[in-house]
Amino acid sequence: MFAVISDIHSNIEALTAVLDDIKSKGIEKIYCLGDIVGYGPNPKECLDLIIEKTEFAVQGNHDYAVLYEPTNFNTGAEMAAHWTRNFLEEEKDAANREKWWNFLGEQIMRRSKRMKLGDVDAHIDFVHASPRRPINEYVFPDDVFTLPGKINGLFDMVEHICFIGHTHLPGVFLEDPDFYTPDELGEYYPVIPDEKAIINVGSVGQPRDRDNRASYAYVKENEVYFVRVEYDYEKTAKKIYEIDQLDDFEGERLYEGK
Questions:
Q1: Domain Calcineurin-like phosphoesterase, which positions (predicted)?
Q2: Number of folded domains that form the chain
C-alpha cells in the first residue's frame, strides 16, 4: 500500500492535513510527483516534510523554476518562483540551505521513476506532467475530445500505469481515449493492470476542479483510491496576502478550488 501526492505548492496546511490522513490509513510509503514549491507561503516547511516523509520526489516545473528560471510562467507563478528562491537563499542556517538546495538539485536527476507492483505483473511510472514530457506537458481532460492523437501518443509511452499531476485535476485517462473523474468512478479505479491508464492524483496544495479540499490518491490491493481532505485554506490564503511578492490571486483561488 502506498500514497501518491503532487503539487503541494508550499501549502503547509494542506500538506499536513494530507499526511495526517495518510497516516490514519496506515500507509507508510509516500511518493511525490513534484511541485513541492511555488505559489504558496511555506516552501521551507513543505520541503522539510517531503524530505522526511516521502520515499522519493520527481521533479516538477515549479521546482525546476526555483532552482533555475521560470519558463513560460504567468506573472503570479513567476513572482512566486523568484520569491521562493530568495526566501530559501536568505535562510541563515547554512545546513538548512544546503539541505533544501541539494534536494531540489537531486530532483533534476529524477524526472521520472518506475517501480513494479509486487502483486501483479505491472510497471508503474511516476512523473510530474506526462510520460512524454515529464516536467511540463499538460494533459487535460478535454484532450480526449480535442486532441485524441495526443492522448494516443502518450499511451504509446505507457506500459501499464502512469501517475501524473501538473494540471491539478484528478481522474483517470484510458486508452480509448477517455477520461473519468473520481466522482464518475465512485472514487476509485478498480483493478491494475486490466488496461493501460494515466492517473492524475490531483493537487494537495492548490486544487483546480472546483473542490477546494486537498487531493491525493493511494493504492491498496491493486486498486487506486482518490481522497479529498479538508484543511484550513483561509489560513494559507491569509499568509499569501501578507507577502507582497506573492500574487493575491494565489490565495483567492484556494477558496473555490480553481
A1: 2-220
A2: 1
